[in-house]
Design brief:
Elements: E1 6-7, E2 18-22, H1 33-38, E3 44-48, H2 65-82, E4 88-93, H3 95-109, E5 117-121, H4 139-149, H5 160-179, E6 192-197, H6 205-209, E7 219-224, H7 235-252
Parallel strand pairs: 2-3, 2-4, 4-5, 5-6, 6-7
Antiparallel strand pairs: 1-3
């Protein structure tokens, strides 16, 4: 695949349903490498690579969610057009949940093929206000928040050279989160599966359940043991939940 926006972490692209994955704030496409390799081999798993990180480090990161969604939707529309008829779903974690949700809304608004299902993880419904004024955070605030949430990238915070490289993307993502404002509209018809950790300091189980308000289709809530980055420790059960949800949507289409 010769595309700036999407990465594959499997040797061969599966011919079955497609799953497009959206990383968390400060995250990169590699956040979904283990999920891609745990899901059934016939799935085609694409991970979004936002500008400003890893091999896109030289590009300016987005500081506003709307143009980021616009750019992702445009690239995804091209992928869909190149392989018409293949069912697909979107998976987003934390900030990625908002990007995935708004991308789905934009595709539907433009009368393009919508996803079979959305998997929205580590965040409450898009209409809920942020728990903090993220756009006002300075570097110390951002790093304190990242440390509190935990995750697999904690070691990078202790390396000044790596920290210097990741901070611009983190700052940009926190600004995008802080300035996001939900605009009410018609619920999606695609089913939604909300996923969360039972000890997530950022979102309660009840808040995760509010994604129900954003679909007129089926809704499921999956709660896993763990904190905000429960994904890293529960990759097998998460992959099973995604497989069940995506195959159910495919069978219904």
């Amino acid at each position: 695949m010769n595309n700036t926006w999407f990465r594959r972490f499997t040797t061969v692209a599966g011919v079955g349903p497609r799953l497009v994955c959206f990383p968390h704030a400060g995250g990169s496409a590699t956040a979904y490498m283990h999920l891609a390799r745990t899901l059934p081999a016939d799935f085609d798993v694409l991970s979004v690579q936002y500008p400003g990180r890893q091999d896109r480090y030289g590009e300016a990161p987005f500081t506003d969610l709307a143009p980021l969604v616009e750019a992702v939707a445009e690239e995804l529309a091209r992928e869909l057009a190149a392989d018409p008829g293949r069912p697909y779903a979107l998976f987003g974690h934390s900030m990625g949940s908002l990007v995935a949700f708004e991308t789905a809304r934009l595709l539907v608004e433009r009368e393009l093929p919508g996803p079979q299902r959305l998997f929205l993880s580590g965040r409450g419904g898009a209409h809920l206000p942020n728990s903090a004024d993220y756009h006002l955070f300075d570097d110390a605030d951002v790093l304190a928040d990242v440390r509190e949430l935990g995750g697999t990238d904690q070691i990078m915070l202790d390396d000044p050279e790596i920290l210097r490289m990741v901070l611009p993307a983190l700052r940009a993502d926190y600004r995008a989160l802080g300035t996001y404002r939900f605009v009410a509209g018609e619920p999606l018809t695609a089913p939604i599966t909300a996923l969360t950790g039972d000890r997530d300091p950022m979102v309660t189980v009840q808040e995760a359940r509010t994604w129900r308000e954003h679909t007129s289709g089926d809704f499921a809530l999956k709660v896993f043991p763990g904190g905000h980055f429960y994904l890293a420790e529960r990759i097998g059960p998460v992959a099973a939940a995604v497989t069940e949800g995506l195959l159910a949507g495919t069978a219904a289409s």
